[in-house]
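2.7 Reproducibility. Because tokenized structures are sensitive to small changes in the input, we list the exact sequence used for TenA family transcriptional regulator, including any N-terminal residues retained from the expression construct. No trimming or masking was applied before prediction.
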Amino acid sequence: MTLRQRLCSRAEPLLTQVRAHPFWTGLCDGTLPPASLWHFAEQDFRFTVPAYARALARTAAVARRPEQGALLAGAAGATFESLSRMSRELGVLADRFGTPEPAGGISPTTLAHTSFLTAVSTASLAAAIGGLLPMTWFHQQVCLDLRRRLVPGTRYTDWIAQYCPGDGFDGYVEAYLALIDDFAATASEAELALLEDGFLHGAYYELAFCEAAWQLQSWAGTPSERNS
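Resulting structure tokens (single pass, no recycling of outputs):
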């Protein structure tokens, strides 16, 4: 069994929970409250995606081979560039559904997640490539599921089309997974343990992030009612 197969096997229960989460199912059928989508999109744009881009750049700097560094640096650049598109998407959401008030800052889960991304990307190459993989891999798998389950014509159809990446993203994910297997070929047991631990922790944050959006998580607590 390759390392990617082992990671896939260990992550599958979490991925199943993510796919079945009411945030994603509500997005597919249009029943998700707009405030929950705003929470998700705003936290992603303002905090998580920038932290992920910086973490990719730091990891690229310590890659062992030039082609690996180029892959990660290219992903970092593309992630930074995606922020302008995400800003426009927030504007579309605000125009259509309004901006929830009061505007919140970073949520507890987002703070923990971004701190994790920073920590793994400064710890070691093994911890970094393992910890950063879920944001790539789970995004791909969630988007494949969204396209399969989307109810045509619902109010979030356009947002989903913008959120899901183009065909070239699959090639990037495959290249990242190949990097994982290549790293595993010469890694020590300690390095493999760091990589797998980082991957599982990152995967838990993928579930926690959609739960935080569903609950409208904030430092003041969860509002008793959502916008409909």
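The chain is about 80% helix and 0% strand.
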